[in-house]
């Protein structure tokens, strides 16, 4: 098996190693990013929902930047929301702060019952810019 080309955001490698997964993998010109949640530096959930969503995007953007890209390079998004019926409007009013201009990436939204103490998770696939394909 080939060695995985893992991308770690600054300062969080120990957190990912402790939890035994890679934050992102470069492969064939794409970046596959694990689901990002609104965790604090120690990995604990941010209790405020709006801040949790912002932290999830900040954590995502740190990984994208480390790989040499940005949310503009994202082509596919999956979001997971605990109890989306009651939380969707709160979450979706924050999305434009990070989403950018149209055309937007594809989107799949999934309602879930549990996210390890979190309320929102976002995972993406991005097309790496030329020179960032690792």
TrEMBL record:
It holds the Pfam family Ribonuc_L-PSP. InterPro entries: RutC-like_sf, YjgF/YER057c/UK114, YjgH-like. This is RidA family protein. The lineage of its organism: Bacteria, Pseudomonadati, Pseudomonadota, Gammaproteobacteria, Pseudomonadales.
């Amino acid at each position: 098996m080939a060695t995985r080309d893992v991308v770690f955001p600054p300062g969080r490698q120990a957190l990912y190693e402790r939890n035994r997964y890679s934050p992102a993998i470069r492969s064939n010109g794409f970046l596959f990013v694990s689901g990002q949640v609104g965790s604090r530096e120690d990995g604990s959930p941010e209790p405020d929902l709006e801040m949790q969503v912002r932290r999830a995007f900040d954590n995502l953007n740190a990984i994208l930047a480390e790989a040499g890209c940005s949310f503009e390079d994202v082509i596919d998004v999956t979001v997971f929301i605990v109890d989306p019926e009651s939380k969707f409007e709160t979450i979706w009013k924050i999305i434009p702060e990070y989403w950018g201009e149209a055309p937007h990436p594809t989107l799949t939204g999934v309602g879930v019952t549990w996210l390890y103490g979190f309320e929102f998770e976002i995972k993406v696939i991005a097309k790496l810019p030329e020179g960032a394909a690792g």
